[in-house]
Design goal:
313 residues, alpha+beta, 2 domains, six-stranded antiparallel beta sheet
Length: 313
Amino acid sequence: MNRKILLILGSLSFCVFLAGCGVEDAIRRNDDRYMVPGMLEPSISSNPYYARHSFTFLGKYKVSHEWLNTDRSCGYGGYFGKPNGVELRIFDSLGFIYEEDGRVWYQADKSYAGKKSNGECWRTDFDRYVRSIKVQSPIYGTPSKEEVQASEKAQWERIERARKTGRYESKKTPDIVTPIGFEEKEVGFQALCFESWMRTSHFLGGRLHKRDLATWRAMLTEENPNGIWSERRIGSNVWLVQETSEQDFRPRPLNGVGGPFQTWLLPISDTGYTLGMELGASRESLQYPDAHERMKAMFRHLIESVKIEPLQP
């Protein structure tokens, strides 16, 4: 996957590439679900159309923001509720993000995520969202006739053993295990929140990275030299913004959606971490002017929902 597709693999453009018809069909269903009257209405400012996420950050700040109220949880732990008279389930998350032993962790609030047996709270490794994690991925060439025959033989042997024992034997390693080389892949800096619309070629992305503004700016400028930089104050937050003029939109990527449009970056005080929000679009998005305007209004609502508050001693 080339370096310009950076949302999923952890760099910058937040473009999405789809693997197979199943994913495309799912995103089209997502289009149908959200491209209905009211769903992107800019006047909607609270549930059930938006879910609230909040967390204590490094023991110093309370960080909160809203996101679309879907069945996904923005990478946080959380819970669903369904008040009477509300069609959509309400999602909310509360928790703590902290550093320990050189890693970043997310721990769910004990009010809803405690383990009854020992009173401990659920927690998960958060490094994949906030840090660079690189792995050596094997590259396999075209197998020889002998290797194919060996693989088929091993498969039949597993089937025969399963017939005799009545137990299926999972294949933990490929039958052909000799790679021709290795390539380095980035599996960190993952998107924390993400939604996409196949039909209109839009996407929304949210990130929490341990990366300063200077690094962000250099990387985004290299990726998208047409983007214009500015500072914008929304409430008490001063964002660094890169925006691409609609006349400079890129074509929709092959088997994908979106492209650089608006990227908003907000440092979390002096922690070295940055919260990022992006609205992606392509030339094809302009064929749906009403949806495009509503996407911009919805994105503006998400930006306005962000709060960073020092914890009281």
